[in-house]
Amino acid sequence: MMTLHSKNILVVLTCLLMTACSTDYENMGKLRSDWAKKQKGDINIVAVSPQRQSNYIKGILLAADEINQQKGKLLGRSLNVQIQVDGNNIDESTPLIRRIISNPKITAVLGHRSSSIAVPASMLYERGQVIFLPPFSTAKKLTGHGFQYVFRMAPSSGIMSRQLASAAKMLGYQNIAILYSRDDLNKEVAFMFENEALRQGVNITKMSSFFEQDDNFRNIIAQLSTEPFDAVFIASGSTPGARMAQQLRDMGVQTPILGTDAFTNANYALTGKEATNSTIVPSIYQAAKKDPITQQFNARYYSKYRELPDYNAAQGYDSVKLLAHAIKLSGSTLTPLISSTLHFMPAWVGVTGLHSYDELGELFGKKYFFQTWREGELHYLPAIHSNYYLERFQSSRKKTVENQSPTDFTDVFSKSMHDDDSKIYMLDLAHDILQFKRLGVILENTIEGKKLADYTLLATLGEQKNIQIVPCEIPFSILSDNEIKKEMLSCYGKLSLSVDVIFLPTKQVVKPSLQHQLNAGLSFFKIPIISLNEKNEDPNVTFVITKRRDVNNASIINFSGLLNNQRVHEFEEKIRGLPDISANLQDLQKMDIPDSSIILISPDTFIQTGVIQ
């Protein structure tokens, strides 16, 4: 049954279509192309935000400054950002949208925070042939019209709800109550979460809706007590969600709260205060990540603004960098060319993760991490996002040519196992991702040499998965450094002709500086290097897969009060064994290895060639 809100949205969309038909938007698109063909003057984009000084705008301006300070700038031209203040609804925003479209010098629009504005606005930008990158719209409808110029920048509500349900199951929640506000987006998320929770075997005890403008939710909360529950899922804006959290706590509900990405907004904790403690929220950005991409962004942002960036700033920064990357690949500001480039270019890595698009502008590869509110601050919850991506990856795999059944990675990594078994399964997963058939390893042909090279583990993997293990033998113990270097170069040359990947043992007999130098040359041969070393410091290693490196005493304490029927130390052991993947996507692409598996598994971190992690 269509709700009143749905009818209102339909009326707005109909009116916008009528407006679009009565305005010569197609001619505006032609004028835009005519201007772009001149290839002169600044490249103009518009950033739309509720406030001129928002962190989202700060991230955009930082990215634009970096581009303009580069030699050659962007196609030899400066990138000019025009900042515009958004309206509170689509009616208030429509005059601004029309002005933007009417300017043929505008190439792209970044902004319109709310889905209630972004979705109808997308129809007008499409007709005016303006590239549109809305930063926070997760609504399914955004990419549901087959548009050419609209590209999602945040994972959809479907991805969010599936990740939330997967995390809830990992935390041990068997019974969940759902509360959602009566608008299209939050209703969409709530019902998607319900479906996915049921698929995961989680029981939904109660599902109730509310109006965000109400102040008193106690009658709705009272109805939850008919059945016991382990957590409450709330889908709403940050302010009404905070009021709901306060009243839940006032009425004795002390269970954890699951929220949407709206609850990452600082306003949620400011409004709800201590009632927001133990709220679990999805977020697309981790400022505390140790990978070079994140740390470089943090340092540059802090240098400019004297504060650390949040997810708003990261989204603004990535939006500009992604657009600039597409313009550079296109070699033009013609929006049809930029659009085609975004649709079909290889996956791109930003500070918020992977970005890959299909023909509808749907975003793939980017993921949500999880955090929890405690005492007004967000704290990272490690590893609980990874099961969803393991399941997604393995569900996409087909049986091998030999008709062997694929490994159930979600099952094997959920169990305690010996370190050697864990390494074999890690290599098994690496094999499924990179699809290699011949693996090379350099070793000394002695008992100790084979042990240092993990040769027994490699042989076991080879037997199980029909992989050819190709050793190259060097008598390390009797050679000088110069002799070792010559022998290593010889082995790399031989292996590059006969294997698909080279395995780098965790315990190396070669000096790290020499190993780094030698590994740097392997990209020339287009041979990936894989490692199981948790302490890898070689920026030339292409693919690292280990146990979780983010599970430690400092991070595991963040689960206190969030687990159901699980002890923290037992949960730590459970999630510590999950795979933690780092990949050098740029090198993999140069080696002609398809993006598809990397996009599905969505590594947590990315290696940059020449930058030590």
From TrEMBL:
Record domain Leucine-binding protein: where: 56-358
Keywords of this entry: Signal
Family annotation (PANTHER family): LEUCINE-SPECIFIC-BINDING PROTEIN (PTHR30483), PERIPLASMIC BINDING PROTEIN OF ABC TRANSPORTER FOR NATURAL AMINO ACIDS (PTHR30483:SF6)
Domain of life per record: Bacteria
Alphabetized Gene3D superfamilies for the sequence: 3.40.50.2300
UniProt record similarity statement: Belongs to the leucine-binding protein family.
Protein name: Leucine-binding protein domain-containing protein
InterPro entries attached to this UniProt entry: BCAA_transport (IPR051010), Leu-bd (IPR028081), Peripla_BP_I (IPR028082)
SUPFAM superfamilies: Periplasmic binding protein-like I
